[in-house]
Amino acid sequence: xxxxxxxxxxxxxxTGKSELMLYDIPDTxxxxxxxxxxxxxLSDTKFAIALNKKVIRENTLLEGDNNIALLPPFSGG
Amino acid sequence: MKTKNERYQRQISLKELGEGxxxxxxxxxxxxxxAGGLGCPALLYLAGAGxxxxxxxxxxxxxxxxxxxxxxxxVSDIGLSKALRAGDILEQNNPEIExxxxxxxxxxxxALEILSGFDIILDGTDNFASRYLINDACVLLNKTLxxxxxxxxxxxVSVFNSPLSAxxxxxxxxxxxxxxSDGEVLNCEEAGVIGVLPGIIGTMMANETIKLITGIxxxxxxxxxxYNSLNNQFFEMDLSALAETAKLIPSNADEFRSFNYDWFCSxxxxxxLNHEEFEAMHQDxxxxxxxxxxxxxxxxxxxxxxxxxxxxxxxxxxxxIHAETIVLFCQSGKRSAGAAELLTKHFGKSKKxxxxxxxxxxxxxxxxx
Lengths: 77, 369
Known about the structure:
The complex is a heterodimer of chains A (77) and B (369). Chain A has 77 residues and is α+β, with helices and mostly antiparallel strands.
C-alpha cells in the first residue's frame, strides 16, 4: 500500500520536492497528519487535496495504491 | 460578406466549427477582466476569432515591466491605460467586433452591473480579492467563469459555474473555500514569472471560451487543469460542488455589495469591523464571536450567537479559541480592540482577529436604523 504524494506550486518551497512516497497510510486524515509532522509549515497554508484526481474534503480510506495531490491556490495573472 | 468569410475562413473550414460556429462566436458576449499577462493573449485570440461583443476591465496603466508578458502593449504605450490601449489595438486587429471598455477597477459596487452585459467571464486578475469577487458575482448572475491563474512556472485553468455542468456546477469556492492568509501566496511581482507561462494559460482560457461558445470538444467544466512549464506535465482533477459553499457566497446583490473582499483576503490592515461588515458575517457558524465584557455586565439577550470570555481572563482562556476567524466585542469597542491586539500577537497569521467597531452601543444604534 503506497501513496504517491504530488506537491504543487509554492508548497514545494516547504517540502523541497514535488513528489514523495508514503507507505501504509490507512486514510487521508492520517496522511495529512503525517505530512504536517514532516513539514509543520504546511499547517500555515491553504491547499486543496485530490485523491486519485478527485478533490476530496472528508476523510477517505486508502486501499491499494493511491495518488494524492496537494494543490495551493494561485493568484497570479 | 465575402471579406468576413475570408477573415474567419481558416476556422470556418473546420467541420466542427463551420458557419454555424462562426455565427455563435459572433453572437457571443465575453468579458475579460484584467488586460495583463493572461488577459492580453486571451483578448488577442478572442478578438481574432470574432467574438461579437468583447469587454475589457482594467484600471491599471502600462509599465515597462509589463511588456515581457503583456503582449498587446509596446514601449509607446507606457503610462497609458491598459483597457483603452487594448481596446484600440484590438479594434485595429478586428474592426468587425464590438469592444466595450471599462477603464476602472472592478469592485463590489460595479461588478454586477458590468458583468450582467456578458455571458462568459474570463478572470485574468492578479489578486485573491478580485478572484473571489468575480467568482461570487458569476454565481449570483449565473455566468460562466473561465478561470486562469499562475504561480512561477505553474498555471491553473478551469471552467466554473457552467450551465453545461452535468451536476451542480462547481465554482471557485468549492476548490478554495477561504482565501489564503496575507502573504501566504506571492503575486507575480514578488514571485517572478516568465512571460510565456501566462501566454500559455491565457491562450488556454481563450480556447476554453471558444469551445464553450461553439459547443465543440470537452471544456474544463468542473475540472481543474494544472500545467507545469518546467517539466511539461499536465495534471487534471475532478471537482465537485459542496453544499457548504453556498453559505460562503453572498446570497443576493445587497449582501454582495456589502461584502468586504479586501478584508476577506486580508488586504486591509485595519482589524476593526464596521457594522455592515459585521452584519454580513455574524451568522457564519465558522466565526467565533466573543464578548470580552466582564461577567457583571448586562448580557446580550438577542442579536447573534457568541461566547463570553471576559478580558480579565482572556490570556488564560486562549486555548478555548479554536476558530480561524474571531470577532471580539465589548460595549464601546475599546476593550475589544485591545483584546484583538493581544490575540493577534498570540496567533500571528494563523487566525484572523477582529474587533467590532464602536462595540455593542454602536451595533445597537445601527440595528435601530
